[in-house]
Amino acid sequence: MRHIGKTFPATRRQAAVTALEDVSLTVDRGQVMGVVGPSGSGKSTLARVVNLLERPTTGTVTVDGTELTALPARELNRARRGIGMIFQQFNLLDSRTALANVELPLELAGVGRSERRARAGELLERVGLGDKLGSHPAQLSGGQRQRVAIARALAPRPRVLLCDEATSALDPVSTASVLDLLRTLTDELDLTTVLITHEMDVVKRACDHVTLLESGRVVDAGALGDVAARPHSPLATRLLPHPAPPTGDGVVELTVSGDGHDAVLTELIRRYAVQVAVVAGSVETLGDQRFGRLQLRLDGAPRDVRAALDYLAQSGATGGDGADRLLAGAVA
C-alpha cells in the first residue's frame, strides 16, 4: 500500500470523514503483519482497501506485483480470488454443512463438484475438522466455526489472507488455537497474512511485524523485535509493559531480547567494579522470541557506576545477524 487515503463523502447527516490518511504499508510473503489501534482508527477500512472492497481515494494497492487499483472491474474480480478474508462473525451459511460452506467459493468460481468436494475435505482435514464435514454451523463451537471460515478462505488458494478481528468473538483457548493455526498455515502455505486486531496479545502470539494506526495514520511500525527495543515508542509500551518507574541513583532500565541480557550483565560485572542487583523486571514472548525490561541498581564508587552506565548506553546491539538488541538509559 502506497500513500493510501480514504475519505467518505459528506451526507445529509454527517460531514465528510477521513478514515485513512497517507498510509503506506508493506507485508512480505510469508509474514504475519498485525495492524492494531483503537476503535475508529481505520483498521477495518484498511483491510477492505487491501482487496478494494473499499476503493481508496488516493494511493495504490499492489499485491504480488499487480497494482489492483489500476485494474478494470472484471480483472479486479479475478484478482480478488487471490485474497482470502476471515471475519469476526464467521459468516457461514447455516443451511450448509461445513463441507458445503468450504465448497462455496469454488462452486461460485465454476469448479466441478468432485474437485471442489475433494479440496474442501482436504482443507477441513488440515484445520483439524476432518470429522466435522457433515456438521452444520449450529453444531459447532465458535472456534470450530472460525476454522471452517479459515478453510473456506483458503479454498481458492489465495496468496494473501486478511483477518478482520478474526478472534474477537472467541474464548481465550479458542483464540490461542486459531492464532496458532493461522501462524502454521502462513508458514506452510507461504501466505502473506494481515491480522486486524485491537488486542496486543494477538500480535504477541502470532505476528512478525506490527503497525499501529491512530486516527487513520500510521504512528509506529516495524518488526516486533525492533519496536520492542525502542523503549519509548508507542508500540513498545504496548508490547512490553514497563516495570514501576525506577528510583534512586544508579538505577538503569534495559530492554533486552533473547539471552542478550546474560552476555551484557556478565560483561558488565567482569569489566567494572560495581555490584549489580535486579530490582524489577518484566518478560514477554513476542512471536517466538523472549523480550524483557530489566531495572538494575548499580552500586560502587561514583566513577565506576558512571563508567558502567556509559558502557550500557553504548551497547546498542550484541551479536550480528538477527542480533539481540539492548538499549540503556540512566535515571537519576
UniProtKB/TrEMBL annotation:
GO molecular function, one term: ATP hydrolysis activity
Keyword Cell membrane: yes
Record GO biological process: amino acid transport
Domain ABC transporter: 1-240
Domain of life where this protein originates: Bacteria
Pfam families the record matches: ABC_tran, NIL
Keyword terms: Amino-acid transport, ATP-binding, Cell membrane, Membrane, Nucleotide-binding, Translocase, Transport
PROSITE patterns: ABC_TRANSPORTER_1, ABC_TRANSPORTER_2
Name under which the protein is recorded: ATP-binding cassette domain-containing protein
